[in-house]
Amino acid sequence: MFIMSEDSQRTQGRDAQSSNIMAGKAVAEAVRTTLGPRGMDKMLVDSGGEVVITNDGATILNEMDIEHPAAQMIVEVSESQEEEVGDGTTTAAVIAGNLLGEAEDLIEQDVHATTIVEGYHEASEIALEAIAEQVNEADVDDDILKQVGESSMTGKGTGGLTAESLAETVVEAIRHVETDDGVARDNVAVHTQIGASSNATELVPGIVIDEEPAHSSMPREVEDASIAVLDVELGVRTGDIDAEYAIDSIDQLNTAIDAEESEVRGYAEAVAESGADVVFTTEDVDDRVSSYLAGEGILVFENIGNSDARDIVSATGARRVGALEDLEEADFGAADRIRAENYGDDDLAFVEGGAAAETVTVFVRGGTEHVVDELERAIGDALDVVATALASGEVVPGAGATEIAIADKIREEAAGIEGRKQLAVTAFADAIDIVPRTLAANTGQDPIDALVDLRAAHESEGRAGLITTGEDVTIDDPFEHGVVDPADVKREAIESATEAATMIVRIDDIIAAE
User: Which NCBIfam families does this entry report, sorted A to Z (predicted)?
Assistant: First the structure.
């Protein structure tokens, strides 16, 4: 008797578990070598020949064409980590993969999957306690925030800029959007522009949009600007139906031309008389209107997108107006300066210091598309982790020190756990060791020797990580060297990796339809 389609494929028992675990481990292995300050980059080429060069875990996994459902769950771990805290994506994926590897060994020893799941969940609770114990007692000030940002970007592609200098820009941006209600991370934008060294990267106190003046004779810069934002077409009105008009004489033609000119001039005069210095409109602007307004020294941008219009309104305090006759001075926004800049084939408008400026923009420069793309990813991650650290006020040591502390506490607590579940708890600690082991391997150290030395230093000093300075690698307190991470990044990595690994381990039947 056939219950399923004859074309369906079914894998059960150990074969199903082995297939899923193998897929998860393969995904983790794909990003493992990118971890840490000496992590390597990956080159990803899609079917269309587009190339992405990065060592950002989330980007790598998103760009990979992964079909296996269990492997896709590891990708989701990375995506969740990126969405929640913005960094630690590689760490989360690597831990998840090694939890699966340890589970595979336990299954081969006839430890039931449910026992493994229970042990892993208990170990994850101990891990969270260990993270809390590692939190720095000092207040999270600008210096610590810079260390968080720098630690996030170390080892990533930052062009000719140092992670330290970029971290200053990142902290300045986050501080700008700090409010009594928290950190408005969404109010920090990143805009990239190819054509200069990354040293030209700057923080713009406002927004940047891809627009050029409607007329070449218009001013390129306006200070203390009064800004109108319109949803109005500044040109001859046209009907919604096709119509033809018969003209029998020159006088009738001149009359029609005069009427059109009068209508166009009326638009131009209405804008000029309103007192606006700068006009943004989502519709077209007639060339004659542009020419007239250029003569009046008014800067106009036409055909701007709705999202750009909303950003301008938010930054300047302007109100969008749908009819020119409704335009009043009360509808105007204000900005310290609006300038139009040309970058090769691209034109950009900078709206700086708006009266209601809630948004700042990190204007990223780079010599090539690959450089600016990777720099954008690095800055985006740094902005996320700095915002997370500022919001929570909790940071922990990086460089593998927190993971060493987690594994040590789990092994200590495992001694009090009865039955086979103790094996799963201990295996969890072994899986966590993959982070310092990988950091050691990526810096050219022997992973086993480094792990032994780290454990010894942790036992004696209470805190020990692999500190990379130039070509030298030492074991020391990461706090003393400014290598710090937000505590929430570690918590999220543990929780998401545990959830994914336990879900995969519990699967013993795969039914795939053709």
Answer: thermosome_alpha (NF041082), thermosome_beta (NF041083)
